[in-house]
Design a protein that fits this description.
The chain has a six-stranded parallel β-sheet with strand order 3-2-1-4-5-6, sandwiched between helices. Strands 7-8-9 form a three-stranded mixed β-sheet. The chain is globular, with a radius of gyration of 20 Å. Helix 3 links the parallel strand 4 and strand 5. Helices cover 49% and strands 13% of the residues. Helix 7 packs across helix 9 and helix 7 crosses helix 10. By secondary structure, the protein is α/β, with parallel strands linked by helices. It has eleven helices and nine strands.
């Protein structure tokens, strides 16, 4: 694949973590002409990016060496902290750290402290979207952090997202907004699953329900997309159920700390847990559908 040549002043990006989201964002960066150095704990998962123009490295420290922006796209707070610590020999003061993983409030504060220790400019930047938007550069990026970093990081944000929502100068605001947004998505996907469960339990073809909703005020493309995945049996992960369960637990932790009761999210956590225990953790999160089926 041919990528655009970097323009003068174009920031180079180290992408640490090339799973579903990280690899999609890396390809979007390369299409936009940004130099990318990619690293993943399992190198074989990063190697396909070389065909798109990325430099694949053996270590996180090699990846970040010389990069203007370090983009982390990993599963949770401990894995992000472990990776940045491993990258420390290649880091330099003043580098911008664009932290896109959803890690929760406590981990965000801990990572901001780790960034300060390393002299990095920390941008709390979780993304809203799944596999396809990541690959298309169509994510929504929530960002909080020093406004002085905005101009440097703008080409990166423009490459990976269709919209950037700046939420403030202090890290943590973006993560709080991401938890709210994920609450909506998690409740929605379980609503889809339960409607399919009930339709089948009542002896109805689920397509009759989908047709009844089509074009009305309560219709949504998300309903039809997730229902189609279940009905076709293709549960290839756009966003894995185990990751959704992790995010659900982060939401519940934040809710408890803030004195808020979230009954639907608590129920969603139970459904995700049952589906994961039944072996569906690596499938798309609509596999929560199986938590509502008779055993």
């Amino acid at each position: 694949m041919t990528t655009a040549s970097p323009a003068p002043g174009t920031p180079s990006v180290a992408v640490l973590g090339t799973g579903i989201m990280g690899s999609g964002m890396a390809r979007s960066l390369l299409r936009a002409g940004l130099p990318v150095r990619a690293w993943n704990r399992t190198r074989s998962r990063a190697e396909p990016l070389a065909a798109h123009g990325a430099t694949v490295t053996d270590t996180a420290a090699e990846a970040v060496g010389g990069a203007d922006v370090v983009l982390t796209a990993l599963n949770d707070g401990p894995s992000v902290a472990e990776t940045l610590t491993a990258a420390a020999p290649g880091l330099r003061p003043g580098q911008i750290w664009l932290q896109s993983s959803t890690v929760g409030l406590d981990a965000t504060a801990a990572l901001a402290a780790l960034a300060a220790e390393q002299g990095l400019v920390y941008l709390d930047a979780p993304v809203s979207g799944t596999k396809q938007p990541a690959e298309q550069g169509a994510l929504t990026v929530f960002v909080s952090g020093p406004s002085a970093a905005r101009e440097t990081v703008r080409p990166v944000l423009d490459a990976i997202g269709q919209r950037t929502v700046w939420t403030g100068d202090e890290p943590g605001t973006a993560t709080r907004l991401k938890l709210v947004a994920n609450t909506w998505v998690i409740n929605l996907v379980n609503g889809v699953a339960e409607c399919l469960n009930l339709a089948e339990g009542l002896g109805l073809d689920p397509r009759l329900f989908l047709d009844a909703m089509k074009g009305g005020a309560l219709d949504t493309p998300y309903l039809h997309g997730k229902a189609a995945a279940v009905l076709s049996g293709d549960l290839s992960p756009s966003f894995a159920l185990s990751t959704a369960l992790k995010d659900t637990r982060l939401i519940l932790e934040a809710a408890e700390a803030s004195g808020v009761t979230l009954d639907l999210i608590a129920a969603s956590a139970e459904r995700f847990t049952r589906a994961e225990a039944a072996g569906h953790g690596g499938q798309d999160m609509i596999a929560t559908y199986y938590a509502g089926r008779p055993e």
